[in-house]
Amino acid sequence: MSSTIGLGVPVPKMLPVTGAWTLPFTAYLLLLSNRVVYQRVKNKQWIGSQLKSDKDNTGNSDTPDPLFLDSRCHMNFLENVPYAFILTAVAELNGGNRTYLNYAMGILLAIRIGHVELGMRGKDTLGPGRPVGQFGTQALLGALAIYGTYLVKGYWGY
Question: Is pLDDT at 58 greater than 80 in this prediction?
Fold first, then answer.
């Protein structure tokens, strides 16, 4: 597929995999963002990352601070997903297999959702989704980086 620019010069779509995954990842990001906003509005806490003051917060994991928990879920997503998109785009621009890249992005979305919904929001914030999401994301980022490097190995003379 291609589109035209300027005087009708056809230009191929260069990042269809990366583009296809923007909607599901953005939809989940909006859910995470709205959870933070909900806690702020509900508790009239317009700034800061915790509802409880330091002296009230005993560190008891049985009752995690809901604003802090939702903020961390949101931040964890933002710490990892943009880098995965960059690595996917680099691999795609260098001729990466689109099937592999689609699988990688699908797996990433599943493990990031699992990290939050089955991990951080689980009992005592220690559900099984938390380590799966953490280590799965790190493995996937590493694999994407290795794959991207492999695709340009000729540049380095290999």
Answer: no
